[in-house]
């Protein structure tokens, strides 16, 4: 069954980064990209003239048509895509509405970074999604240009509530994509007694039951999945020691403050964004296993409770 990613697109570097990441994530999977451009709602009280988008003589309509054509032309061959234009009170709300309309499993956006350090800078749209989206949100670093496919998933998890959803989702995604899974434990940074630390299989069983837990155990035994502990004086210092390669994507989790299965980016996850240099997928606490990308039929194998 084909799954869909909604791509938040604007004719700028941020939009191009989002489209590049969506293509990277979709490559080798049975996924369709819904490239969404969100325009402001108009009203008699707004300062803009309400020009209809389908008016052939509308300058705005023609420009949006041009931008959408350019976006569709950037999608690599072999990846399904369609473009939609919707009006909404805000871009973030518009993207969530489009995701609901098309039954999407994730929203992909670009996030600005500093030119020197490639750190994520979360803008208004990203911030809104990262505190309200019921779906995983994928963030592209500035200038992202990898063609894909994903070759390794790295999940950063700790002992806080929400780790089960994060680990379970990453295990399911790694199985579906047939890629390596690296589980980076932040347990040492949480300073909890060893007796209170759950095993990976326990987290997975809590999320997806005994069958998924058994598959996770098989991954670990085969070496297709590994568990590593990062240590350091603080979170930033610990993550500096982690190695990253082309084809990597990082999964991080939502804060315990998240409500109703939605994302809430906690303080720790925000710190993670400041040091990570690879694409990041932020996972809601109650995301379901079925909401992860599936590998396309016949394709060759090749988004913790880290919030507070």
UniProtKB/TrEMBL annotation:
InterPro entries: Rossmann-like_a/b/a_fold, UspA
CDD domains hit by this protein: USP-like
Taxonomic superkingdom: Bacteria
Occurrences of domain UspA (ranges): 1-140
UniProt similarity note: Belongs to the universal stress protein A family.
The protein, known as: Universal stress protein
């Amino acid at each position: 069954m084909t799954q869909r990613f909604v791509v938040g697109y604007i004719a700028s570097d941020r939009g191009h980064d989002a489209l590049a990441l969506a293509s990277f994530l979709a490559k080798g999977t049975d996924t369709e990209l819904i490239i969404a451009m969100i325009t402001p709602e108009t009203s008699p009280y707004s300062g803009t003239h309400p020009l209809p988008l389908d008016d052939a003589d509308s300058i705005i309509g023609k420009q949006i048509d041009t931008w959408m054509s350019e976006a569709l032309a950037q999608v690599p061959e072999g990846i399904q895509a369609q473009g939609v234009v919707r009006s909404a009170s805000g871009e973030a709300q518009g993207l969530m509405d489009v995701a609901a309309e098309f039954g999407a499993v994730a929203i992909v956006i670009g996030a600005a970074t500093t030119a020197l350090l490639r750190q994520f800078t979360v803008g208004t749209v990203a911030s809104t999604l990262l505190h309200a989206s019921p779906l995983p949100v994928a963030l592209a670093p500035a200038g992202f240009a990898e063609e894909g496919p994903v070759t390794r998933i790295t999940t950063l998890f700790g002992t806080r509530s929400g780790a089960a959803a994060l680990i379970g989702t990453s295990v399911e995604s790694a199985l579906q994509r047939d890629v390596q899974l690296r589980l980076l434990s932040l347990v040492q940074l949480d300073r909890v007694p060893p007796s209170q630390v759950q095993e990976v299989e326990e987290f997975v069983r809590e999320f997806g039951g005994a069958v998924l837990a058994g598959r996770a155990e098989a991954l670990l035994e085969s070496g297709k999945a590994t568990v590593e502990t990062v240590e350091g004086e603080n979170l930033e210092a610990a993550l500096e020691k982690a190695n990253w390669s082309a084809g990597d994507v990082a999964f991080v989790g939502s804060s315990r403050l998240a409500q109703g299965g939605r994302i809430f980016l906690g303080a720790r996850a925000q710190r993670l964004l400041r040091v990570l240099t690879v694409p990041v997928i932020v996972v809601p606490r109650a995301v379901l296993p079925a909401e992860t990308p599936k590998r396309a039929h016949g394709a060759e194998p090749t988004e913790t409770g880290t919030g507070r």
